Amino acid sequence: METKVAVAVLCIAAAGIVAQWLAWRFRAPAIVLLFAIGLVFGPGLGLLHPSQTVGPALRPLVGLAVGIVVFEGGLSLNVRELRAAGEGVLRLTTIALPLNWGLSALAAHWIGGFGWGAAILFGAITVVTGPTVVLPLLRHVRLERRAASFLRWEAIVNDPIGAILAVVMLETLTGAGDPWMLASKVAAGLAAACALGIGSALFVRWSFSRDLVPEFLKRPVLLAFVLSIYAVANLALAEAGLMAATIFGMAVANLGKTGAAELRRFKEAVVVLLVSALFVVLTADLDRAMLAQLDWRLGALTAAMLFLVRPAAILLATLRSGLSWQERFLCGWIAPRGIVAAAMAGVAGLRLEHAGYAGGGLVMPAVFALIAATMILHGFSLGPIARRLGLQLGQGLGLLIVGASRWATDLASALHQAGLEVTLADTYPGALNTARKRGVPVLQAEILSEHGAEALETRPVDYVLAATPDNIYNGLVCTRLAPELGLERVFQLAPSKAEIDPHKGLTREWRGKVLANFGLSYEALEERWKSGWRFGVADIEGEPPAGETVPLMLLHKNGQITIPSPEHPCALMPTPGERMILMAPPTPSQSVASAAAEAYP
Question: Is pTM beyond 0.85 here?
Answer without folding.
Answer: no
